[in-house]
Amino acid sequence: MSHFGRSGPPDIRDTFSLLVLNITFRTTADDLFPLFDKYGKVVDVFIPRDRRYMLR
């Protein structure tokens, strides 16, 4: 069984990716959802973390 379940892969024809730079280290996905939700449905937020800075 695929990881998409019975409905198949999501319809991505009307989706966009957005790169947001210069956010604080403390920024979370919960912080970003309401900021961008007013422009359209936000389906995912990915915030990469640099492990070197997590130790400070």
Automatic annotation (TrEMBL):
Keyword Ribosomal protein: no
Main location: nucleus
Pfam families found in the cross-reference section: RRM_1 (PF00076)
Keywords of the record: mRNA processing, mRNA splicing, Nucleus, RNA-binding
InterPro entries (UniProt xref): Nucleotide-bd_a/b_plait_sf (IPR012677), RBD_domain_sf (IPR035979), RNA-bind/splicing_reg (IPR051106), RRM_dom (IPR000504)
Subcellular location(s) of the protein: Nucleus
Molecular functions per Gene Ontology: RNA binding
GO biological process: mRNA processing; RNA splicing
GO CC terms of this entry: nucleus
Domain of life: Eukaryota
Annotated Gene3D superfamilies: 3.30.70.330
Domain RRM stretches: 18-50
Protein name: RRM domain-containing protein
Source organism: Handroanthus impetiginosus
Lineage: Eukaryota, Viridiplantae, Streptophyta, Embryophyta, Tracheophyta
